[in-house]
Specification:
Main location (chain B): endoplasmic reticulum
Oligomer: heterodimer
Structural class of chain A: mainly alpha
Helix content of chain B: 25-40%
Strand content of chain A: under 5%
Subunit structure (chain B): Component of the oligosaccharyltransferase (OST) complex.
Shape of chain B: elongated
Family (chain B): Belongs to the OST1 family.
Pathway (chain B): Protein modification; protein glycosylation
Distance between the termini of chain B: 103 Å
Largest sheet of chain B: 7 strands, mixed
Shape of chain A: elongated
Strand content of chain B: 35-45%
Number of helices of chain B: 8
Radius of gyration of chain A: 18 Å
Organism (chain B): Stylosanthes scabra
Radius of gyration of chain B: 46 Å
Chain lengths: ~80, ~625
Amino acid sequence: MAPKAITSPVPDSLYPTLSVLTLAIGLVLTASFFIYEATTSRKTRSLAQELTTGAVASVFLGFGSLFLLLACGVYV
Amino acid sequence: MMRFALTLLFTFTFALLSSSPVFSDLILAKVDRRIDLTSQIVRITTSLKVENAGSNPASEILLSFPENQAKHLAYLTVTLNEGKGKGKASSGAGLPVEVVVPKDVPNSLTFYYVSLPKGLGKGESLLLDVLAVFTHSLEPFPEKISQADIQLLLFQDTAHYLSPYKVTVQSLTVKLPEARVESYTKLEGTKLSGSELKYGPFHNIPPFSYLPIIIHFENNQPFAVAEELVREIEISHWGNVQVTEHYNLFHGGAKSKGEFSRLDYQARPYVRGASAFRRLVARLPPRAHSVYYRDEIGNISTSSLWGDSKKTELEIEPRYPLFGGWKTAFTIGYGLPLRDFLFELDGKRFLNFSFGSPINELVIDTLIVKVVLPEGSKVISASAPFPVKQRKESKFSHLDLVGRPVVVLEKNNVVPEHNEYFQVYYKFNSLSMLREPLMLIFGFFSLFVACIVYMHADLSISKSSASYLAKVQWEEVQATVQQIHNIISNCLTAHDKLEASLRDLSRTGDVQACKATRKSVDSLLKGVSKDLKPLVAFLQSSPQAAHILPKVEELIAKERDLQERLMAKHTTVVDCYEKKLGGREIENRIAPNQQKITALRQEVDDLMDFIDEI
């Protein structure tokens, strides 16, 4: 059985594109999170919405920063 | 002089030994030795034709080297030569060779056992090729030279092949780098033609026969010797193998004495400084990227790189030419694609990488290869085609929690022949790759949680001060106004639905659908006024809302007006359709209402914006 070459799960050439996309979405979600924080008053705020927006934004930001590091040559 | 005394001592010892017991009944029928002195590394290729003259089949052959040579032996390989004739190269991997110390010989000889795959039967013969590579075997003589002197080296060896077996016919050829030989031992039948020195042929030499010869010749090849080389190979499963090599080089030839004149060197480099070397060529694997060459001061720009599909060639020039005894230290780094070097077989992953340095003709005194595996690698083992010292370490690098496991392989006396592939095996769960993005995600999420906590926390010290109470009331007013705003938006959406249904009516003529829409909007708007009542009441009671209240009331009133007019218009249009009146007629009837509607709508929108911004 011939050994199989291992490559990364995401093709190398896609790293810059992916990083820009995921970071953009992440930043948009972060912005919506902060807008929600700024415009609602204490009574009408809902913790569930805050947490979900924060969680989804942090997922996109996390992957975005990972792909950004990889695209810049810091192979973590 | 000490050298001559030693060689005489050897001659006597071997004369004694020749009367010692015979090791086996093998005879070397033909021995051809070629000594290659064209670079700083001495390579001796010996072709042996071994015959079994005894009655027992032999499964091992002994090779012997004198002690002073054996301690410089860097690489020894023995291959079976299957071809007939000199042109055919020997095939297959080398035969297993082992160091052994037989009992009744003095320590001045080192023996190597070569195990044959199938025994050599009685009367059979076998062709073997032995390649022995020696480092630091050329001694500079004179030991110190000035810039204008030529570099002369001394090489000592034996004209008769030193072997525990009898040799029937043997010959020796020495290949020199240039045609210039200062002196050489002249024996019978010695011929110097061009840059080749031929000794022999010698017939029927007894075992352990040693006939010393000394050759004193000129060699201006670069004597690049690395005192220590540390190669770090870091694997990242995201697609890159990063190699960083730290070199500590010196010139291993005749030491330089006296002054160094840059002017003389620049003007006539081949006369003043022929033995110095200026550039080194490194042969990197193909598809190497991000190559850098720097030292402690910074980047060294005197380098050039070109590559094709088989290799990437890097030519580097240290900051100054290296004369005898001079040192330099630098670092080379490059990245390689992962798929060329990392493979998977039977659930285990392994890295297949070359062991030695990529620089041509470099002798390394101590080579340390460190393979840094990603965090989460388990069951790590390394295998190399020659003996190396292994140990494990740990390294902290990007996004690491516990550190990455490092396999350290160390070897002394390394020559370019050691540039073979070695493997490092390990097990890695692909899901462990997610650990890195999860760490980043968790970091960002903690920022968001901190923000939420800050917004929810009530950090005021006094809960009954006037300003705190005022703030609380203002927040309540804000909340109420927001609710009113939301309700009015819903109303406006309902108005838009009505308008849309009118447009649909003009397109499709479906009166029933229009009526249905109106009914639903009607019920919606009825509930609105009920919702608005308590909110407005609260605003009226709150002192903070004083400046907002008139605007809010105005908004509600206007919205109600708009609602009524819109309903009237809708009713009119539906009636007209039922009576099948023309378009012109419809427009005439709703014209006065329409103007007011548009104006009111604009005012309501303005008020909504104003309220939104408080």
